[in-house]
Design brief:
Blueprint: E1 2-7, E2 26-27, H1 35-50, H2 53-58, H3 62-68, E3 78-85, E4 90-93, E5 98-102, E6 108-112, E7 114-117, E8 131-134, E9 140-141, E10 147-150, H4 151-159, E11 167-168, E12 173-184, E13 189-203, E14 213-220, E15 229-232, E16 237-244, H5 253-266, E17 268-273, E18 288-289, E19 294-298, E20 301-309, E21 314-316, E22 319-320, E23 325-326, E24 330-332, E25 338-342, H6 348-355, E26 358-359, E27 371-376
Parallel strand pairs: 2-13
Antiparallel strand pairs: 1-14, 1-16, 3-4, 3-14, 4-10, 5-6, 5-9, 7-8, 10-11, 12-13, 15-16, 17-25, 17-27, 18-19, 19-20, 20-25, 21-24, 22-23, 26-27
Helix pairs in contact: 5-6
Length: 382
């Protein structure tokens, strides 16, 4: 099942930085929100609609306890992934091994990096790495903002690379500065030194009949058909909830078979993160062995990590409802990160089954972190 969330008005998602009244006058907005933010909002919306928070805390309501757990335990409700939606199509993050280049006359083109065996191609590396992603383009790289692709275009490019059209976040998102001052609700007067500024967001650039928002792929979920709204983001702005009844697979069985065939020919695979992931070793999962550079994917599947394309980590926080305090902050690898691995031919089919619509995160898998897909990539000699 999928759930489509559409904002009723402007919205705002705060970053992890503190904002104390009278000390900090501006708050920084982030977008898209962390998967855990969506998970928590849906959890709260279901509890509010189907019961009450006192029953949830006590665990006395069997239905609430089954799906949403208690303040100390998790229920059966699980999210597989959280994506943006332009009103018609799901938007997937552009993998980080692609460059958006500023070509002549202001044109833009997208080019994927080429993986090279440095020793075979007479290249040298300062960190003694045997493999690197290289680009031979002389055009300037344009990395400002976040880049997305429509899902069908994204899959077509992954299976048959021939160039892909990208969408910047600024194409469908606009900001509206809001300035206010805190009021004393007893005296009805403004409080001295309590001026604040917030960047509110709004979807834009779509047809009036389209309703962009956030689409949530649920792995295991109760019936949300009677849950019409969720409070989401700063100021608890309302978002409409719509149930979308369709298959949740990102990659079909036919596309999976094509990837298996390609991978048997190349032996080089790309593990692409579609959602953020929390990895124990920072830019490598906890199952990665530093000594031999092997990644253990479970079920006897071990692959050699050749290289990676990963940007700066994002910070994940939140509120601990059991301890009534902020959660300990952790760093997460951003969506779009790519690991290049070498797969033995006899393990190709098991590898594909494990990494297509698979999970590669050391924490918070139930909140939608760590969803992966895989694809092959030929080794280039030049």
């Amino acid at each position: 099942m999928k759930l489509l969330l559409n904002p009723v008005d402007t919205f705002f998602f705060r970053d992890h930085l503190p904002m104390a009244a009278g000390e900090d006058s501006a708050a920084t907005s982030i977008f898209p929100p962390r998967p855990g933010t969506i998970y928590g909002a849906l959890r709260s919306a279901y509890i509010h609609n189907e019961g009450d928070f006192i029953s949830f805390q006590k665990g006395s309501d069997r239905d609430l306890k089954k799906w949403m757990g208690t303040t100390d335990t998790l229920g059966e409700f699980k999210i597989k992934a959280v994506f943006l939606h332009d009103g018609t199509d799901t938007l997937l993050p552009l993998p980080f091994d692609y460059q958006v280049l500023e070509a002549k006359y202001g044109e833009k083109k997208v080019e994927r990096g080429h993986i090279h065996n440095l020793q075979q191609n007479n290249f040298f590396s300062s960190d003694d790495a045997g493999w690197k992603l290289l680009s031979f383009s002389e055009d300037k790289s344009s990395q400002k903002g976040d880049f997305y692709c429509k899902i069908n275009s994204w899959k077509k490019e992954m299976l048959n690379p021939n160039g892909v059209e990208v969408i910047r976040s600024e194409n469908f998102l606009t900001s509206e500065p809001k300035i206010g001052i805190k009021r004393d609700w007893q005296t009805r007067r403004n409080q001295e030194g309590m001026l604040y500024q917030i960047e509110m967001n709004r979807f834009q650039g779509v047809e009036p009949t389209k309703s962009p928002g956030i689409i949530v792929h649920c792995e295991n979920s109760p019936d949300f058909s009677e849950v019409k709204y969720a409070r989401l983001g700063g100021r608890n702005r309302p978002w409409r909830i719509s149930v979308v009844e369709e298959k949740t697979e990102i990659i079909t069985q036919e596309e999976k078979a094509q990837i298996i065939q390609q991978l048997k020919e190349t032996g080089i695979a790309r593990i692409i993160l579609l959602t953020q992931a929390i990895w124990k070793h920072g830019f490598r999962p906890g199952s990665w062995n530093k000594n031999d550079n092997m990644l253990d994917l479970g079920d006897g599947i071990n692959v050699e990590v050749l290289t990676a394309s990963i940007k700066r980590p994002v910070t994940i926080g939140g509120w601990d409802i059991a301890r009534v305090r902020p959660k300990e902050r952790v760093n997460a690898v951003p969506e779009g990160s790519v690991l290049y691995v070498k797969v033995q031919r006899e393990q190709v089919e098991m590898f594909v089954e494990k990494t297509i619509n698979g999970i590669l995160t050391d924490e918070l898998a139930h909140e939608g972190y760590g969803l992966t897909v895989c694809g092959s990539y030929p080794v280039v000699t030049k």
